[in-house]
Write a structure and sequence with these properties.
about 75% helix, rod-shaped, about 0% strand, mainly alpha, 2 helices
Length: about 60
Amino acid sequence: MENEKISFKKCKVILQKDGSVYTDEEVSQIREFLYKMANLEHEVYQKTKQKEAEILEEKRSLTVR
């Protein structure tokens, strides 16, 4: 899953919206961490959906017999 990332500038604006202040390095690290977490969650979701599809197919094949 490789989508266009939000810009660094927009990310910094979002992170500092509540008055918090982050260095550019901190914003960069937070941004990369959040993208890694999102990718991991997406992978888990895809694997879960695949497993569900396999279970459904197995159940269908058992009822056809």
